[in-house]
Amino acid sequence: MKVNKTIQVNASAQKVWEVLYTNYGDACDWASTVNESKEREVAGSDYIGRTCSTVFGDVSEIIDRADAKKMELQYHLDDTPFIMKTATANWKVKPLNQDAASVTMDLDVTLATIPGLLMGWMIKPKMRKDIYQTMDDLKYYIETGNQSEAKIESDNKYFKKNGIKAA
Fold first, then answer.
1. In angstroms, what CA-CA distances link 164 with 99, 146, 155, 157, 160?
2. Strand residue runs (E) in the chain
3. Hey, which of 13, 37, 140, 145 has its CA 20 to 30 A from 99?
4. At residue 120, does pLDDT exceed 70?
5. pLDDT digits (tens, 9 = 90+) for 83-113
6. Which residues, 6+ apart, have CB-to-CB distance to 114 below 8 Å?
């Protein structure tokens, strides 16, 4: 399954890159699909990874490559929820002018065989919707400095379910 989405953000490309790469471990600050996240060291890699608690379960990611000059980032899931076999995300940030940038995310997911066969009809649309929402969350967060309504609602539901007080 492939999902491709490009948005325009009314902020500098550098500001977008800072949220996506410099603050890589802090995806839980803005993404409604990520309720908890933290950066982690990856043995034998020049890059870091992160662990995330998401709507699909806990995931672990490792950056494969990052090019600050081109503002391109690629990472893969090295520990996936049971419904996924593999997943790779590519992000590209391009300046449009001093105060605007385009952000593209290409996601390539291979569902695990049994869940894919049995539930693919319902997993794929949900995953696509969540990725589109994540892009909207990013735009809102960068442009306003605040979390989107979807992010706030997701966190409240997640933390209530897990008996933790939301931040």
1. 38, 21, 10, 10, 6
2. 2-9, 34-40, 49-54, 57-67, 72-79, 84-97, 100-111
3. 37
4. no
5. 778 889 999 999 999 999 999 999 998 887 7
6. none
